[in-house]
Design goal:
Oligomer: heterodimer
Number of helices of chain A: 9
Distance between the termini of chain B: 33 Å
Strand order of the largest sheet of chain A: 4-8-5-7-6-9
Shape of chain A: globular
Largest sheet of chain A: 6 strands, mixed, barrel
Helix content of chain B: over 70%
Strand content of chain B: under 5%
Largest interface: A-B, 40 and 39 residues
Radius of gyration of chain A: 21 Å
Distance between the termini of chain A: 29 Å
């Protein structure tokens, strides 16, 4: 029976061999069809070229842990940054499942998280939309605004949809999503509500590429507001998002974190660390 | 993400080879993802070679707006004769190339 080191070395060598083959195929493809791909981009055909680019990045960066070539790492960072820039052209209202998955893959890669638009069969109606500013929420009985930071945001008159928070960070970094608009909410709210209660999500501002880990802490905003999400004062401050006429959009994706190891709050990304860790 | 070629064919031999290379499910998935992307590029290359410039752009537009991947194949049938057979053959060829790469690595 081969020992663990042998197996790991074998896996690494096999991965490098497959990546090398993949790289050649992708380069041949891009060289041969550069005019077509360039033209597609000029016409704003985002998905196909993005998916192609994603394919190249996914496998090229996944090998960087075992590469010792610094030029290769720099190239991977450049590729990923280029892709993230390109991602902004993909984001639009009412994206389909495939587009959602491309976005989730790209942001997973960028931030080193395991993100998904669809988790355990659950998905939000939209992963991209306007975010409005929410007030603080009472965390538990006896809580007062004076015990929160950013007090100018005020505090809502009632607790959030899930009642007491489990800890202070959950209220600090919470978002509101339109649970009431889910197609099966009215029929299955009793089973959906526990699943969404303080579910970890990743909130991403494509304009400044800042991301924060938060929980779903409330239901809302109402559809007539034209907004899709709400953010706690701390979430909005970190993402540099504001309400009103200056409001902007964010991406919200579920985080796969079965072992509950991912801390709530801002996600700092070092491009160098990213390349070395992927 | 499911690639449109996977609507009509699946690879069998490579997943088995990968499973024999590592017991770790995450590692298997990583390797398989590289393989799927490689084949995807090979199939796209085939399609682009069969289409003229206008059709290529139409094809990319179609992929962008298609509700499901099976309709992409239907659309390709309008332009390319025996496209399913051609894709099957290309996938098979791509799979063999990858198997060779794996076998070379296993012999090292």
């Amino acid at each position: 029976m081969p020992d663990q080191n042998y197996q790991q070395n074998h896996f690494n060598r096999l991965k490098i061999a497959l990546e090398s083959h993949h790289k050649k195929v992708v380069e041949d493809f891009q060289l041969r069809h550069s005019r077509t791909l360039k033209k597609a981009k000029q016409h704003g055909l985002t998905l196909a070229s993005t998916a192609i680019l994603a394919g190249s990045i996914l496998s090229s960066s996944s090998g960087s842990l075992h590469t010792t070539n610094p030029h290769s790492s720099v190239q991977q960072i450049a590729n990923l940054n280029q892709f993230i820039d390109h991602l902004n052209t993909l984001l639009k209202d009412s994206m389909n499942e495939q587009e959602n998955n491309v976005v989730a893959q790209a942001l997973s890669q960028k931030f080193g998280l395991d993100l998904a638009a669809n988790l355990d069969g659950h998905h939000l109606n939209e992963i991209y939309g306007y975010i409005g500013a929410e007030q603080h929420l009472y965390r538990w009985q006896g809580d007062t605004l004076s015990l929160h930071n950013l007090q100018r945001a005020g505090i809502a008159p009632r607790q959030g949809a899930f009642g007491d928070f489990d800890n202070t960070d959950q209220e600090k970094y919470y978002v509101a999503v339109q649970l009431q608009e889910l197609p099966d909410w009215n029929a299955h709210w009793s089973t959906l509500k526990p699943w969404y209660r303080y579910r970890k999500v990743f909130v991403y501002n494509p304009d400044n590429q800042k991301g924060v880990v938060a929980v779903i802490g409330d239901a809302g905003p109402a559809k007539f507001t034209g907004k899709t999400f709400g953010g706690s004062p701390e979430v909005m401050q970190y993402l540099n998002r504001v309400d009103g006429s200056q409001k902007g959009k964010v991406v919200i994706l579920f985080i796969k974190d079965d072992e509950n190891k991912i801390a709530l709050g801002p996600v700092k990304v070092s491009d160098l660390n990213l390349a070395l860790n992927n | 993400m499911k690639y449109f070629y996977e609507e009509i064919t699946e690879i069998h031999e490579i997943p088995e080879l990968i499973k024999s290379s590592t017991d770790n499910a995450d590692e298997q998935e990583q390797l398989l993802e590289i393989v799927r992307s490689t084949i995807h590029h090979k199939v796209l290359d085939l399609i682009f070679r069969e289409l003229d410039v206008v059709q290529q752009q139409e094809f990319l537009e179609y992929i962008e707006t298609a509700d499901n991947q099976s309709s992409v194949i239907d659309k390709l049938k309008e332009w390319i004769s025996d496209v399913e057979q051609k894709i099957l053959l290309k996938v098979k060829q791509a799979e063999q190339e990858i198997i060779e790469a794996i076998k070379e690595e296993n012999q090292m």
